[in-house]
Amino acid sequence: MYDLPYLETFIAVANTGSFSKAGEKLSFSTPAVRKHIITLEEYLDVPLFERTNKGVVLTKYGQFLLAETEKLAGLSFSIRTRIKHVGENMNRLIRIGISPINPMDDFNRIWHRSPHSDQFSVTLVALPTDINTAVPTSSETADFSDIGFCSETSPEQFAPTEAVFFTEYRITCAVPINHPLAAKKELSIDDLKGETILLPTRGNPLFANRFVRFMQEEHPQITIESLPLFYDLQLFNRCAEDGRILLSLDCWDHLHPGMVNLPVDWDWKLPYGLIYMKEARREVLEFIEAFKEAMELDKADKQS
User: Fold this and answer.
1) Has domain 7-71 been given CATH number 1.10.10.10?
2) CA distances from 44 to 28, 38, 65, 272, 304 (A)
3) What is the average pLDDT across 229-237?
4) What do you get for the CA distance between the two ends of the chain, in Å?
5) Does 88-167+272-303 match 7-71 at the fold level?
6) What is the pTM of this model?
7) Pairing mode, if any, of strands 223-227 and 147-150?
């Protein structure tokens, strides 16, 4: 499946940091492992490792190659999983695309209420990106998942899709731990006066427009910096490093160790749910209907 020579040897050396340990793992001699790596480096025309007295470490080229091979490994696993379901069973396999910042607790709780859960084989698929809005209609995700997650959809942007919102999350502020406001347990509007809050707009354009307009009209002392970015892990990393306040959700309370996610005394909330193609295969639509039924059961449980 891999188009590069000696890729397995490269992965073993990268994981062990040693030619000899990689050889032991693969049952190769140390000289053979060295030869494999040299051949691969010549094939790619870049150095993959830096040789040191304590072993070998990845170069920037090696780091890139390792990250890409991990994606290939994930795709390989997906193919192996899906090929086992060829035929009728394949039709009942539902691939749900997730990212590291997708909250799953509410989805799992509701799906476990479904009397039809045993009629489907659900597999979680790590998507190529770590954004919180994973849309299975994009070119990047179409081959990976049948269903994704979304917080709010733009009719113009996601016309071929439908969304089923099954919960909502309160809007919070993620504050860097070294920021003066990080010591508070809850923020008030007055606390935020004179502050600048970063608001990514990609994936949530409708909410972003409403929120920015409201804050400009009602609380002009608070600056909302809206940028065409997605919510992803790199964004949290940047805000933690730069000391910037980030508009967040209460489901991300423990997402980043360098940020404190604080509630704010406002009533802003954001819906969260599943997104799928309107013209999805029949079994995907049946899964959605089963999930909707489970939502009603979950709602009835809460009311009783």
Assistant:
1) yes
2) 22, 10, 10, 44, 64
3) 87
4) 54
5) no
6) 0.66
7) unpaired
